[in-house]
Structures are given as structure tokens and as C-alpha cells.
Amino acid sequence: MVEDNSLWPTLKKYFYVHITEETEKEAVQSIKDGVAFKGINLWILIFAIFIASLGLNVNSPAVIIGAMLISPLMGPIIGMGLAIGVNDFELLKTSFANYGVATIISVLTAVVFFLISPLSEAQSELLARTSPTVYDILIAFFGGAAGVLAVVIKGRTNVVPGVAIATALMPPLCTAGFGLATGQWTFFIGAFYLFFINTVFICLATFLGVRFMGFKRKDFVDPERGRLVSRSIWTVVLITMIPASFLTAYTVKMSVLNANFNDFIKEQLSFSGTRIVASDLNIKKRTLRVVAVGKEISKKEIANAEYKLPRYGLKDYAFEVIQGSQSAQEIDSLKNELNEIKVSKIKESESSMQREQQLQAMEEELKKYTQYEALGRDVCSEAQTLFPEITSVSLASLYEARDGGNESVRYVLALVGVKNEAARRSLDENKLRVWIITRIKNDNLRLITAVDKDFPKPESAKESEPETKNASDAKSAPAKSEEGEDKAGVKKAG
Question: Which fold has domain 10-218?
């Protein structure tokens, strides 16, 4: 007999999953045993929910992963997928009933925890479970496929924990409980939708898996009923995908817009002596805002940059530049002038009164622009204690011209850096604003929060790094320490 060496038989030899009748029976029995939620299984579920809720509350990924590993929630879901795949409607009813019980108990347990927990702020791990996308669908589908294969093929115990972590059934239920406990319905809807996505696509992967492996099916007495079941399955799958598809499209759109905005800033607003310390894109109001310090950007340069917005897909956006009233060079000049007056005061004692008044006036003027440097260090240290999301705080006195220069306003700008976008959304800005106003004793405050990684590095810092390094090598050990402390202080002060 001549062996067929064509492509399809060769591939089939590698990818075909062969199972015996005995292996199939053991797999089916194993799945049926995991469906029941009574006694030990129910208590393990409750403990897992408490552990996952604690992890979400304190923002600990390690604790959340631990809860996923001990959770028995996968049992009824795989049971439903198997039941549909082999046309076992008794198993389907049992699996669905236990799935409902497990879901209700999980949400209620999470509600109880978050009602008694003293921590009520939504951390980044909670926020990550409120906006499901198509990527979550893919994770659930491929995780479910790996799970059903792990159940069928003995000895693959390392696969099941990985599936439990990847599909993440516990955190969405806990987040839904948080939404109910705190009255935040968007949290509840988003998180429960993510849990539903995981359920549907793990079921779908299990259904396709048992069909692919040739599990023995029960025959329908009425063939039309079989076609109805098939149509129902694909209808549920498609309906589940629709909201996630829209959310994914919005996420991708925002990523593209932010990338274009960052390119615009780097290419059109990079001027020597000027640093862009913050930027904001508001898609609802269709506005672009940047905060610049250092050398002032001229109106002509701003207009030229605004003219080029359509190149970056930002044609219909209003553009605003907020700039400081004193550049770094102007402050240095003011310091030098002050030193000259001090020397002149010593030499010309006959006009000491006049010089003293002039010196005092200039010291007061200089203090307006340098007082926030020292104050910024203390505010940053205290703010990080009160608001763990914060990584940096910068304070500066700003002068903003409006209406073509006919109107002006002076205020203090507080630029707050946070760890990531999730931390930015969870930060209580109203509480932070009130605290900073009280701390700096100035009611005229504008607060801007931004993710630290988005801060561009100032050109002056880039150019001075090699020179500074060589200079520090030539100094003694104590001198290095003192220089290092000064650099750290400047960095904290923004």
C-alpha cells in the first residue's frame, strides 16, 4: 500500500486529537463532577470571592491570581458547553442551574465584602474589568479551548491553572458586586458583561472542542429541533460580540488619536528652551490643550502649529497653549540682577535706604516665582502619602492671556503625575484640589493630571547628562551625594 505524503494527511497526522471511548467517558464524568455546587465546592467559591475582592480592594494582582486558581466557577460553564456539544439537555439544565446559583452567590458575597470594607475607592484592577473588548472575547475562547483539551487529555494539569488565570472569571463578578455595593451601575454593567463574555465563549470553545474530538452525541428525535439549537447558539454568540466590537473600535480610535496628538506635540511644538509639561485631548469637547514652561512660544509659532493639525487627523479640534509668565532664562536674569544689587549696596552705603527698598522689592518679585520650587517638594511628599496614585507634583505661577491679550489671569498651576491611565481615572481630583488649595494657601489654582510616562524629557536635561556624569566622577564621594540630592530635589519640584 502506497503511503499518502500529500499536505493534508501530513498536517492531520500532527493536529488530529485521537481519544478512545474510555478516555471520552472519563472526560465526560470529570466534567459532570465539576458541575455540582454543593458543600465543599460552594464554600471554596465563597472563600475565593472574598480573596478576589480583597485583591481588587488593595490593588494586588498576586492576590487576585490566587483567587482565580482556587475558584471552581469553570465547572458549570464547561458543563454547559459539553451538554450542547453532545445534545445532553439534562446535563445542560443541571449545569445552567448550578451556574446561576454560583453567579448569584458570588455577586452577593462581593456586595457584602464591599459594604463592610473601609476602602471604597476604585483601584486600577477594578477599573480594568469595566470595559470589555474583542480582545477579552479572544482570551475567553482560546482559554476555553485549552481548558476542554486539558480535561480530556490526562496529565496536563499545568494547563488548567493557566486557563483559570487567563479567562479571569472571578474579578468581573467581584467588580459587579463593588458596583452594586457603591451604587455605581456602570461598574456593575461593564463587569457583568465581561463575565457574560467569558461564559459564552468558554461554552463555545467547549462545544466546538467536543465536536472536533468526535464525542458521541445523542440523536434528536426531531431534526428541526437540532437546527433550532444550532441557530440559537450562533445568535447568542453574535449578540454577545456586538457591544464588545463597538467598545474595541472606540478604544482603537482613542489610541490612534492620542498617538497622533503626541506626534503633533513632538514634531510641531519642540522648541529650544521650551518644555511641554502636560497635554490633554478631549474627544467630546474636541479640544486639544498643552501646558508649556520655559521660553515663550510666539503667537506665530502657535498659529503655524495649529495650521498643521489636519495632517495629524485633528482637523476639527480647538487648540490651546497655556504658558508660564516667566521663563527659566528670565528667572536666572532676575537672580543675577539681585546679586548685583547686593554688591552695589555694600559699595554705596550713602544710598543704603533706597537700595534696601529696591532689594526688598526685587526679592519679593523673585519669591513669587521661586517659592513653589521648595514648596513643591513638601507638597509632593505629603500628596503621595494621602493619594498613593500620585508619582510627582509640580507647582508654578502662571500668567494666561485671553481674548487676544485684552484679558489676563494669574494663577498657580499644579501638574500632578500618576502611575497610569487607570490610576488617573481613580484619583479623586476634587479632594486633591481642595487639599492643594489649603496646603499652598492660594485659591487661584488650576489642577492638571497626566500619566508620568507621557511627560517628554526636557532638552536641557538630555544635553547636560553626559557633562554632569563626568563632573561627578571627578569629585569626592561626599560631593557626589550632595549633587545627587540636588538633582532629586529639582526633579521632585518639577
Answer: Glycerol uptake facilitator protein (1.20.1080)
